[in-house]
Amino acid sequence: MAALLTITPGVDTMLVVRTTVAGGRRTGLLASAGVVTGLLCWALMSAIGLTAMLAASRLAFDAVRLAGACYLLWLGLRALWTARRRAPGASEERPPAPAIGRAAFRAGLTTNLLNPKVGVFYMSLLPQFVPDGASVFWTSMLFAAVHAAESLLWLAVIVAAAGAARRALTRPAVKRRLQQVTGLAFIGFGVRLAVDR
């Protein structure tokens, strides 16, 4: 079940592809690490019972949902704005690689943490598989570790594929089109999350 959830395309996959194409494999792997860190945070919150608050409190769920929708809309609008601008010239100063890597990690983490459906997934699905008499906390964390490992492996495959296609995808016209497509996809995900009940 975790493997099926992992390979289902969504916001995290789109973010990792876009980050890899824009910044290279290292940056894509850092975005993936951010996503997986977000999964582990959700798992920890679920194991100690905090995500139950999302299911019990409509206000808490809506607050996280709307924050996530706003963040996705911002990512989408930023991608569309980037697509409008010309590619940076050789004379333009680029941020240093560590700053780009931190931004990629932060984007992966934030995108995952602002998706309340991940928390509800951990709260509603994992407890069903905890054997009688087993520690709920440690068993839930073990299941989360399995899901995190599968996610990291799958996202590494995505990074490798996007990295291999990077040369073709970074041609100016293709890059602009990719920015437009991912921007519209992020906006679509954001609107869907905003109106989803």
UniProtKB/TrEMBL annotation:
Say if the entry is tagged with keyword Membrane.
Answer: yes
User: What is an example of a Pfam family matching this protein?
Assistant: LysE
Membrane protein topology class:
Multi-pass membrane protein
Q: Which domain of life is it from?
A: Bacteria
- Cellular location(s): Cell membrane
Q: What is this protein's name?
A: Threonine/homoserine/homoserine lactone efflux protein
Species assigned in the record: Actinomadura luteofluorescens
Transmembrane ranges, per UniProt, are 29-56, 63-81, 136-165
InterPro entries linked: LeuE-type
Query: In the UniProt record, which is one GO cellular component term?
Result: plasma membrane
- Signal peptide positions on this chain: none
